[in-house]
Structure formats: structure tokens, C-alpha cells
Amino acid sequence: MPLAEHLRELRNRLVKSVLAILAGTIVAAFFYDQLLDLLTGPWERAIDNLRDSGHPVKAELTFPGIAEPFTFALKISLVAGLVASSPVWLYQIWSFIVPALHRNERRWSLLFSAIAGPLFIVGFVTGYYVLPKGIELLISFTPEGVANLNSLSDYLSFVLRILLVFAVAFEIPLFVILLNGMGAVSAKQLAGARAWIIVGTFVFAAVATPSTDPITMLFLALPMTVLFLVAELVAFLVDRRRAKRDAEVGLVGVPDDEASEIRIERDVRDDMPSPLDDDDTGGSRPAP
């Protein structure tokens, strides 16, 4: 396909994606009240827990300006529209890229998508589940007699940041498996660095989560640790299969930059008698 055709196809797929997002945003606007309840649910649970524990707290979600309610409604509808229309625009991206992939690359990309999607959703839901604990701890530092007033736009950004941190963190073990599949990291290297990786995971969880409570950190660090151990097991199985394949073709001990079946076939052909070699009678062997 010439470059102009590629650009036309890209334009068409971008238009379809934008229309899908626009339609999803319009539909989400009709469910604004339900989306607002879903967004403010963790905040209300956190405040109720503080008050039930006897902590006097005055905290409210506010709109700081006259036009802020309208702007916030557009923002939350757009976020919901992006999520709702994700199957459409993800399919458009996939359809534009897949013709350039080989069959093996398509299979690996489909496997990656099948695993990455559920992991992203699990991380997103986990972040939403632990969000009230983080809010409760942060609000508890408010001194008595001081009101904690938060803009709904700032609160939305805070919630999305927490959820995205959890969702992306759950994808890290998948990238470890991809690096192993490309030969960049071996299972032996992962096993040797296991202790440091686990410590780094807990440090990442402590830094990535804006709340300082250990519960939120553990809810992020423990699943990441388990997923890393699963990734290490998968890497071990992949390395064992790769070693078995190399043994069958005689590539054991051959450096990666020299491991080529073409080189082996050439070596086999070099060992075969040449058509120009003399035969047993002293004459020249005819070419086949």
C-alpha cells in the first residue's frame, strides 16, 4: 500500500475512534449522577469511617467557581466515554497495526492483549477497593477546627492517578515475560535478583501511592510480588523449552549473535563433497 493510502486509512480510523469517544461521552453524560456517586463513594466511606472512630473531621468536596460544575461534568463524562468506547478505538489501533505484523507476531500480540487487559482491570479494581483507606489516612491529618475543602476536579485527578498507578503496576510482570521471550532477561538472572526486585517492589509501592498508610502499600506490593513470582516461573519454563530446542538443533553453547540455523546448514553443506571434487576413477564428478 502506498504512503498516501496508509495516511487515508489512518485518518479514517482516527475519525471512527473520535466519533466513538464522542458517542460514549454523550451517553455517559446521561448517567452523570451515577458516575458522580461512583466517584465520591470512596470519599464518603472514608469520612464515615473517621467519624465512626470518633475523629472530629470537617471535610467536604466543593466546586470553587461558577462554571466549575459544568466543566467537571464534561470532564467526568469524557473519562467515562474514553473507558466505554475503549473496545472501539483499541480495535481501530489494532486493525491499523496488524497488517504489518507477521503471523507469529500477531499471535504474540493477541496473547499480550488477552493477558494485559484483565491485569489492567484487576489493578484498576484493586486501586478502587483500597482508595477509601488512603483517603481516610490522609484526611485524618487535618487538625481539629480546620475544614478540609477539596475541589472535585482535584479529587478526580487524585483518584485517576491512584487507579492508573495500580493498573499499570499490575502490567509490570507481563513486561518481564516479554523481555524474557525476547531473550533480554533469563530466568536465572531473575532468580538471582529476586530479593532486590521484591525490595524494589515495596519501595515502588511506597513511593507510587500518595497515601502513606501501610495498607495501601501492601495492597499494591503484595499482588505485584506474586505476579513477579509467576512471571519468573513462566520465564523458567520458556528458558527450559528454549534450551531443549537449542539442543535439538545443536546450538547449545553457541553465542546468541552466532546462533543461526543458516550457519548450521552452511556447515553441513561444507562437509558434503563438492560436485567439482574428483571421483574414485580420477575423473571429475559431474554437477547434479
Automatic annotation (TrEMBL):
Keyword Ubl conjugation: no
Description of how the protein assembles with itself and partners: The Tat system comprises two distinct complexes: a TatABC complex, containing multiple copies of TatA, TatB and TatC subunits, and a separate TatA complex, containing only TatA subunits. Substrates initially bind to the TatABC complex, which probably triggers association of the separate TatA complex to form the active translocon.
Membrane topology type: Multi-pass membrane protein
Subcellular location: Cell membrane; Membrane
Keyword check for Disulfide bond: no
GO cellular component terms, A-Z: TAT protein transport complex
Pfam family, one: TatC
Protein name per Swiss-Prot or TrEMBL: Sec-independent protein translocase protein TatC
Region (Disordered) residue spans: 263-288
Domain of life: Bacteria
Protein family according to the UniProt entry: Belongs to the TatC family.
Organism of origin: Mumia zhuanghuii
Chain intervals with Basic and acidic residues compositional bias: 263-272
GO MF terms held by the record: proton motive force dependent protein transmembrane transporter activity
GO-annotated biological processes: intracellular protein transmembrane transport; protein transport by the Tat complex
Transmembrane segments: 14-32, 72-98, 110-131, 158-179, 191-209, 215-238
Known role: Part of the twin-arginine translocation (Tat) system that transports large folded proteins containing a characteristic twin-arginine motif in their signal peptide across membranes. Together with TatB, TatC is part of a receptor directly interacting with Tat signal peptides.
InterPro entries, per database record: Sec-indep_translocase_CS (IPR019820), TatC (IPR002033)
Keyword set, alphabetical order: Cell membrane, Membrane, Protein transport, Translocation, Transmembrane, Transmembrane helix, Transport
